[in-house]
């Protein structure tokens, strides 16, 4: 198992995602001899997990069953321990495409936060790219590095414990793309520019507040960035349901009675019809943040 | 490690390169061919001068359709404005504010004035410009710039640019798949290097190309294609290096039933036998054809009726040529047959290669985006995925995906099913004028995504399963019919 390459079977030391049922999952560090408690009973790692194929059904001690899934950055995003506010898949997908990430890309990121985006970046830039991620909170930077090791992606990433606004990204002229998710991104724009390749590249800033966007756009413009665009993407979930719509009783229809041969079926038999449709969840995320993208043009030396 | 080479030669435009032309928000994918006229935004020009320049260079259009690299740091925002009004209370729309006529402007253009200079002329000759607010002036200049600045930027193609281009220019060709929806698909399907991905699309090759870009030439992509041959115009536009095509395989969906049933014959031995047979048939046929042709001719010659005699000079000339011609013809036929044979052999080999990739039923991802009814396609192709692998289906219509969802729920074998669409809004960000852009896309299509899991192992459950879907399938066909 690795977050950048699939394996077929679960091995000692893997991180697996236990699927407990509708939208309910939990990550498990697989360890010989260890046990995991679920609402369906105990999962014994040595017998129930190790050597089993990813995606197979595991019966727990109380007779209930779960599926064990191979980790992916998307599953990790919905299962990771939150140490900060995190980026979700909808924004991540947009960022990945708009930053033009692909295998071999060199990317700078700040802050690392809980590593939700970092894992997705690593998946996309592997096996030949590299991520330089900067986190000013020491404990968080240590914790995330530990996770990168557990997820076997640490060879693709350098974690730096510093302040991107003050000290930049620790690299110069190497990045194809820079991502900013910090409270005052405009203060890091010049560092972003310095970190990027002379031939140019793409940059993105994520901010929840429009005032931040305003300042960041000005900074991008001042630093000579081009094609500055701000967008917002929202996920809309459609829950599939069969709904039953009652039919009102219109009373006897005199015109229908003119034809005596027609057998009149009482309307009560068709008192409702079934419709397969979708409904929106009652509450949805109405805002995550604004995404501002820009292109750094080639800089003459 | 991180220090990759930032070599200019990587960014130089070469002849034969696939590039994207950009002007404002408009894109067009073209190939760099010298002496070839390109039409873009109602203007024609030649790309000859782009060769040897660097990507992302902006060119100015000179007379005769010649491109000239725009000098760096052109005085871009130096338009002279001279004061501004506070509001629009004094501005009348009487159609007389601009003193320059259309003809005047055309004359200016013919005199070779640059876009910037024409705009300055327009401002100088506008009676209301100085009364407009600063913001309105900004807007005016921006609008005129779009109209009179003859510039074009040449970009290196990418998934982002091509997806935006197709969506803007020819959405019908890509089933109205919006670029942000494509972005979601690539992420939800966990497309990455060193995996094996199945793609079924009728989006001009845009989806396939995007998948290939994300795999960076590592791993394998199998394009499951409908109809006579795979459509890949969009893939070309990506301008991938040659080795990217080594990971691309193709399998005709019309052989899928045979493959699933295990009756698809792609073994080399049977292949050649098959080929021989068909070739022999072809050869026999040609021989027969030749014979009949010859017969007809001799008959005509022998008859020698007055009518035919009048053509004698012709046929006489023919006669001497006939043996030679026939020989040539035969040679040509043989060569053609040989060529056909080679091509067929190649095709068979490709089919065999794709089939062997599929036979393991261990693909790592599945992406469907087509104009076909997605449900049968999804049901058929899901069989080829390993357990615990993501899949994503795009449709322009939600109802088709509801059907897929229902069927998957009945059948089992998948978890985390989600039916979604995406809402995309652009913002104008300007000092004191920040607001959403007035026009937004009404919809970008729908996605159904999920993860495969292993089929049931315990026997009683399995048998129950076998019966259940069968009954339901019947029901479905009933309602369909």
Automatic annotation (TrEMBL), chain A:
* EC number from the UniProt entry: 2.1.1.220
> Which positions fall inside the tRNA (adenine(58)-N(1))-methyltransferase catalytic subunit TRM61 C-terminal domain?
64-296
Q: Where, by residue number, does S-adenosyl-L-methionine bind?
A: 114-117, 135, 163, 181
Task: Kindly state which keywords UniProt assigns to this record, in alphabetical order.
Answer: Acetylation, Methyltransferase, Nucleus, S-adenosyl-L-methionine, Transferase, tRNA processing
Task: Read off the PROSITE patterns from this record.
Answer: SAM_TRM61
Catalysed reaction equations from the record: an adenosine in mRNA + S-adenosyl-L-methionine = an N(1)-methyladenosine in mRNA + S-adenosyl-L-homocysteine + H(+); adenosine(58) in tRNA + S-adenosyl-L-methionine = N(1)-methyladenosine(58) in tRNA + S-adenosyl-L-homocysteine + H(+)
State the Pfam families in the record.
GCD14 (PF08704)
Instruction: State any GO BP term from the record.
Output: tRNA methylation
Give compartment(s). Answer: Nucleus
MF terms in GO: tRNA (adenine(58)-N1)-methyltransferase activity
GO cellular component, as recorded: nucleus; tRNA (m1A) methyltransferase complex
**Signal peptide coordinates:** none
For this chain, the family text in UniProt reads:
Belongs to the class I-like SAM-binding methyltransferase superfamily. TRM61 family.
- Its biological function? Catalytic subunit of tRNA (adenine-N(1)-)-methyltransferase, which catalyzes the formation of N(1)-methyladenine at position 58 (m1A58) in initiator methionyl-tRNA. Catalytic subunit of mRNA N(1)-methyltransferase complex, which mediates methylation of adenosine residues at the N(1) position of a small subset of mRNAs: N(1) methylation takes place in tRNA T-loop-like structures of mRNAs and is only present at low stoichiometries.
- Subunit structure as annotated in this protein's UniProt entry: Heterotetramer; composed of two copies of TRMT6 and two copies of TRMT61A.
* Name of the protein this chain belongs to: tRNA (adenine(58)-N(1))-methyltransferase catalytic subunit TRMT61A
Automatic annotation (TrEMBL), chain B:
Q: Where are the transmembrane segments?
A: none
The keyword Hydrolase is annotated on this UniProt entry: no
Basic and acidic residues bias spans: 90-99, 279-306, 321-345
Q: Which family does it belong to?
A: Belongs to the TRM6/GCD10 family.
Here the segments flagged for biased composition (Polar residues) are 307-317
Q: Which UniProt keywords apply?
A: Nucleus, tRNA processing
Q: What is this protein called?
A: tRNA (adenine(58)-N(1))-methyltransferase non-catalytic subunit TRM6
Q: To which species is this protein native?
A: Champsocephalus gunnari
